[in-house]
Amino acid sequence: MKWITREHPKIDRIACPWLIKRFIDTDAEIIYVPFDQVIAKAKELDAVPFDLPGVEYSHYEDQCTFDYFLKKHKLKDDALDRLATIIRGADTDRLDFAPQAAGLSAIFLGLSHNIKDDYELLEIGMKVYDGLYTWAKYLFNQKHTQAPVEQLLLDVYHKYLKTGKKKAPAWTKELREMIQDQMDTNMSISLRQASDELEINSAYLSREFSKYFDNLSFGDYIRKMRIDKAIALLEATTYSLTEIAYLTGFSDQSHFTRIFKKQTGESPSAYRKIATKGKKNTK
């Protein structure tokens, strides 16, 4: 069977072909084409499109395409589940999902920068995911710090140094100001953009963020800020839901509606009706 997706793959569009060829369709042919040609070429070549908006095999809810493949083909494997968490974190910039997510992201950003041929990159990426799967299946409990001296240092750290509440580092103030600046735009800031701007390692920022921002991960905090802004727009303006979705950084109205309802328990339209009715009753 032929499977087709967008060119210039990095994480998910290497992981999905690996999953297809190792667990779903060993004779699969993977095809990469420009974004605007995927659907037409899929029909022409009788290929299954994936990792593209509007097709079956794509991101859904907060999951990525790799997750959908596991769900669709009912692949029950603890090692694949571990991989899915790492891939989801790396592919959606939620590096807090798994310690390995930042490393996977860095590897494929570097490889995609060095290797311009998509099929050469896929060949190398298959080996990367083979190694990651072996780790996830047999070696995930092993620690690098096995030497007695290293373990002693870790014991000292956990017993005597990792205590008490730390004073918020200087970068937290900068980051709060950076996020606040985004409130007047469409809240498009990502963890990688923030780490680049602050000149801080993204893995460190992901790990430390929740300590100083309401015990929320970077993604959850930005999502909360988006919903707070959406609530203000729903209550104070007559913008359409599509316009509010754009102004608050959501990909489309359906995505905005789904996340808003998940966070507030009400759809945006229902929330607006309740807010409008409340205003009338107070007059």
TrEMBL record:
GO MF entries: DNA-binding transcription factor activity; sequence-specific DNA binding
Domain of life: Bacteria
Gene3D superfamilies for the chain: Homeodomain-like (1.10.10.60)
InterPro entries: ChrB_C, Homeodomain-like_sf, HTH_AraC, HTH_AraC-typ_CS, Tscrpt_reg_AraC-type_HTH
Domain HTH araC/xylS-type, first and last residues per copy: 173-274
Record key words, sorted: DNA-binding, Transcription, Transcription regulation
Record-given protein name: Helix-turn-helix domain-containing protein
Organism encoding this protein: Pedobacter planticolens
